Batch of 2 targets.
Target 1
Amino acid sequence: MAMKVGVLTGGGDCPGLNAVIRAVTLALHTHAGATVIGIEQGFRGLLEGRGRELARAEVAGILAEGGTILGTDNTCDPFNDRSQGEPRDRSAEVLAHVRRWGLDAVVAIGGDGTMAIAHRLHEAGVPVVGVPKTIDNDLAHTERTFGFDSAVAVVAEALDRLATTARSHRRVMLCETMGRYAGWIALEGGLAGGADAILLPERPFEVEAVAAFCAAREAEGRSTLICIAEGAHVAGEGLAVRATIASSPDPLRLGGVAAQLERRLQPLLKSEVRSAVLGHTQRGGTPTAFDRVLATRFGVHAAGLLLRGETGRMVTLAADACGSVPLAAVAGQTRRVPAEHGLLAAAEALGLCLG
Ligand code: F6P
């Protein structure tokens, strides 16, 4: 009998999710005549038994579409569900739906939270293959996650725009990016957009050092463009937290560090200081060509793993080749910018301020 596979997208959305859904569906149809069930709203849909068959026609034309046609959710952990008050293990309900649908395996497309749940699901007896998604590029054991390149492109374009207005007014302009506890988006986006200073979570900064850098430029009649990651912070101080979402596996939502730094820099400088937060513009919209191709490669590789019975693994990219690692190796890990990273050395060589 032909295989039946469920596909879900978990955690925050990002450009390229639909490209993976399309690639998994087409590859499984083509090579195995498999039936693919699209599970709605991530693990919430798996818990509540909400899904629909994905025929080839349904995935036609979605390659370049942002978001996810299946919907997603970043608050549901079936092993620790808080939707009805006290946390409860509701994995038995998930297993019942998997049996009812007759699923042979599940493809879980998501970030570290999704991979942690996928790992537990696999251990509970449901064969799972993970596909690494996140604009943050912070998943362990993969050089790239799809969505990251699209987010970097948004940051670069925003910096281009902020640079011209900053220059016209000789202002200090702060641009806050996403990225959680890793500085990848700010680092690559900052370099691509010609930022004068890049502040990362991995390198706590001193306000006085940033102010001195801006003041020196100010003395020469120059503006300063600062790209700051939402997880960046002053040495010895805590993170800027925008909200806490108790029901979420990762409850902290970061945000506000650019506005905080604006307030602290202003009294130390003659030029005006302004800040902009890019927020969810980095997650929305169409994927770049790079992300469309990467997402397609990941989807095809995931289908191949399933067909070979190699489950309990997450697809990876290393030296530009797709591979895979056990889900257990990814769960609960964050890949941050290492101190010796070549892009940091490049930023230093250019004379950028890193805090
Ligand atoms: O992990 C992706 C991400 O966009 C982070 O960069 C950001 O901190 C977080 O999600 C925002 O989450 P939410 O959409 O719940 O505000």
Target 2
Amino acid sequence: MEAQNSPHEVGKANAFPTPIRIYVALFAAAALLTTGLIALVYGRPVHMPWGTAATLLPLLTVSAGLKLRFQLRDQIQGVDLFEAMLAPAIFALPPIAVIALVAVAHLTIEVYRRNNPIKATFNVSQWVLAAGLATIVFHQLRSGPTLSGGTALAMVAALTVWALTNTFAFAGVIALAEGQEFARTIRVILPAQVVGWAINTSFGMLFVASYRSNPLVVALFVVPLLVLRWSHRSYAAVLADKARLAGMHRATRALVGPINPRDAIPHFVTEVRNCFEAGIAQLVVRDGDVRIVYTTDAEGTAVTVEDAASESLAWALALRGRTSRITRATSAQSLVALLKAEGRRDCIAAPLFADGRVVGVLCAYDCTGPEGFEEGELAVLETLAREAAGALAKGTLLDEILSERSKLAEIVEHTSDGIVTFAPDGTIQLWNRGMETITGYPAAVTVGAHGLDRLRARDEAGVDVMVDRWASGGALPNQLQIITSDGGVRWLACSATPVNETDGRPHLLILVVRDVTRAHEVERLKDDFVATVSHELRTPLTPIKGFAMTLVEAGDSLSSADRTVAAQSILRQAEHLERLVVNLLDAAKLERGVDGGGHDAIIDVQLIAERVASDFRTAHPDRVIVLDSTGDCRGRGDELFVGQIVSNLVSNAIKYAPTEEPIEIHVGNNENGIAISVTDRGPGIPASEIDRIFDRFHRLGNVLTRAAGGTGLGLYIARQLAAAVGGTIEVDSVLGEGSTFTLRLKPPARLVAVS
Ligand code: ADP
């Protein structure tokens, strides 16, 4: 056993610390000492069998080089037939010649391997020392020139001393290099040493016996050497293949575990490391401007991010675009420099491709395991890299699908439209948030339910709509009426899209609905309005036409008093019609928002009230209109609008209260603003009608108010105008006693002291 490029030395900045150097120096001294002692004791050889020496030298060299080595993670185990080949040399050659042969054979190997001088010195010294000690033991114990029992035992003893010297020497260097306990090191390497010793001693005895029978057969010793080498190679090849294939199997299986293959990468890299019995395994993946590096060593897996422009051995190998192996002996100097800079002994790397471009690289550094199967290793690594590239592509695809899905889900969830889907059997599969808002029912109670039974869906004609029967044909109406969870009625505009399977069978119904209750209501009100307007406009026309016809056809036969009555009736109805048209135009203008705001001036309500009162007193000299005011009567609004509102209120009071009853206008203020109230002692308004009198065309059904010929638009217009100036109108009424209408306006903005 000797110090090879073993994992023990790999990656160490200083592979030969002082204790090792001293240890090597001691060995060199011991070897020289032994050599000197042998020269002294045994002197110059009297008889030198040059032929045997010349034949044994190449055989020894070859057998030292043909090491049948099993390198496993933390152990180096190797068997060679050097000792077996040494046995006939010890038997046949003078001691000094044996030492010379051993030294030359091993020097040749060290030079061939270009080993470090310190390492070479250690190896050669160790072998020379072992050879010297073995030779001394043999020559002291042999019982004669023949191969007697005693001589055979002497040979066994010599080979045992040889093996022991090697074992201790090697254990010593390992213990120093690793800082490991010497005894423990011995225990670890001993099994392989014993096997090596047994094989070598048997072969050694065989070689000696053959040599004894005929020295010429020495040349044939090369045959068992080669046979052993070949059989070992085939065996090791099988082992290597088995180990790598099992590793590959484990690594690829790691990739198929999680749903997203990216999640399997740390496990995969760990298995790659195991597969190649590597010090480190690494997967580098290019991601835009950075590279994500998964590194697994004995400690576990670490994920780091490096700049895509940064230089690394892994990426330099990736850019080669092919699977490659780099050792310190590789000719590509720049790569070897990187290998050394990263403190690695060797590296195998296989690039990952996507659409013909390099997207990553899979590397294993400092591989151990059986030697000599580099091609197979590269093939396995390439396969693993392909698997990794496939897994990354699948991961990317999965990310894209998930992101698309979440985008779709967000659209479906956040759209204000309601979206509901039905299976062919009518069960609800999806109920989005819009649907929850519109109907008040959460998805938890509707998904899985049958059709829209819960919503009591009906069409415009009031017929139940069976959405659950969509698959058996039949169109769905464009508008649905539903009852919400709080019992409210809502109208939905629907758009139904059936989706079929490829074979034409119904697969899914997508129903998109929009709440159109407001639009539906407006539509209905418009229809009502048109009907009411036409009715209201036509009503005064009937007496106008009747009186006009009477005047045309029988005017001459009528008394002048009757003619006057007829003409006055026509005039009254025409005035009513005029009021109606003017009010209608005002209302329409307000609804369209023609005035567009800007009614926020500071106005003196007292003045406005005085003007309105005075106008009405002139027009109705028979009525008593009382106006009183308290405090500052300024408020915010629009002079014309407020005047119009007060006019409408006073006009109603005049219309509906008996002539003899006074009408009171009061203007007052408090901190909330200004209030103008108009009080009459008229018939009053029933509580149930209080809100409705502000609706368009709404008039109380009693004879009195009907007879007064109102248009039903005055209060509606007053409320619209009040809203336009930011005010309100309320009514307080006692049936049979009278009513008080109050307009409230905002106070003028206060000055705020800032100093
Ligand atoms: P009209 O032109 O009919 O007066 P309004 O919108 O001004 O229309 O009033 C709506 C209805 O409210 C009136 O028809 C009347 O029945 C009732 N009303 C309004 N003011 C009074 C009031 N001061 N006293 C009693 N009823 C009133």
